[in-house]
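Fill in residues.
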């Protein structure tokens, strides 16, 4: 009962958060230079046609009227129509979500698993030469811009060594279903996942290393070691669970950064996901798509924060929701 109440209260908190996001994004988009009606009608459009375009899309109304209409529209579950394709924004976004989930989910799972394993491994001998070298490499990886790394990967593995595809999610003349389709998508997934996971891998290595080293120095670990348990058993059964708490916290908070990185990664590799859709919409000043993408991203980040709190409470019985 208490868990349901907590989830309900956190879900209700999404309402003002989403409202603030909508208002701020609506304000920033309308403060940006340029006239959306000129983009829709064309630079050479005559004044009469330009006025009809403004009236048709409500661009001739005051800012507060446009904002209120959009809030009412969103409250009814309608994100509007794309100015470019004239398709419903929600349907257009949902058609891109699976590709982004595949890219972000794969890179996030690999970076957390690999980073935690490497960090735990080097934490067993803190201060060693291996610890210093791996820690320095982790800091360097965390500092690499994702778009630069993506371009370097394309240059190396798609141009110099043409062993991996440079862009897209699947080959134009590739298989449409079956195991062939899965292998084709997996081949196209390698480079964007490698670029995106490298950005967060270094952070998880450093985080896991610090957390495990700190937990291994706790008094209860000394007690368990005195009883006669092996180091591997102590690490896996007693230390790693508590050491995962900061990793889980950063994992939830980093989802927003991963989505931001996905915009750059999907643009470099022409990956047909939500990031690429947002990039194309920004170039075309497709305001409904931009607003809809921001709303979906903000709700996703807020939901990830709720999931992080629940996982944190499950890992640490001392945490009360």
């Amino acid at each position: 009962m208490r868990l349901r109440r907590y989830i309900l209260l956190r879900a209700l908190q999404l309402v003002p958060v989403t409202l603030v996001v909508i208002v701020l994004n609506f304000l920033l988009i309308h403060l940006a230079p340029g006239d959306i009606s000129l983009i829709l009608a064309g630079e050479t459009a005559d004044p009469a046609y330009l006025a009809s375009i403004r009236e048709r899309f409500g661009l001739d109304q005051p800012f507060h009227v446009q904002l209120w209409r959009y809030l009412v529209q969103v409250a009814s579950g309608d994100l509007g129509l794309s100015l470019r394709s004239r398709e419903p924004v929600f349907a257009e976004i949902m058609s891109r979500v699976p590709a982004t989930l595949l890219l972000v989910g794969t890179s996030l799972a690999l970076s957390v698993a690999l980073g935690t394993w490497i960090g735990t491994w080097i934490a067993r001998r803190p201060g060693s030469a291996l610890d210093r070298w791996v820690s320095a490499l982790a800091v360097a990886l965390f500092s690499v811009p994702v778009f630069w790394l993506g371009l370097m990967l394309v240059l190396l593995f798609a141009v110099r060594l043409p062993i991996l595809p440079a862009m897209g999610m699947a080959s134009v003349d590739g298989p449409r279903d079956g195991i062939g389709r899965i292998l084709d998508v997996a081949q196209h997934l390698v480079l964007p996942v490698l670029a995106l996971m490298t950005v967060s891998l270094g952070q998880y290595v450093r985080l896991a290393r610090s957390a495990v080293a700190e937990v291994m120095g706790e008094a209860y670990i000394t007690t368990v070691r005195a009883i006669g348990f092996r180091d591997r058993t102590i690490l896996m059964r007693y230390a790693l669970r508590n050491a995962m708490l900061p990793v889980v916290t950063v994992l939830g908070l980093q989802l927003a950064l991963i989505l931001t990185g996905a915009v750059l990664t999907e643009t470099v590799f022409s990956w047909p996901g939500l990031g690429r859709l947002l990039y194309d919409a920004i170039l075309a000043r497709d305001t409904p798509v931009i607003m809809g993408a921001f709303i979906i991203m903000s709700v996703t980040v807020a939901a990830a924060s709720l999931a992080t709190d629940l996982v944190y409470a499950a890992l640490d019985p001392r945490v009360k929701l």
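The CA atoms of residues 10 and 306 lie 7 Å apart.
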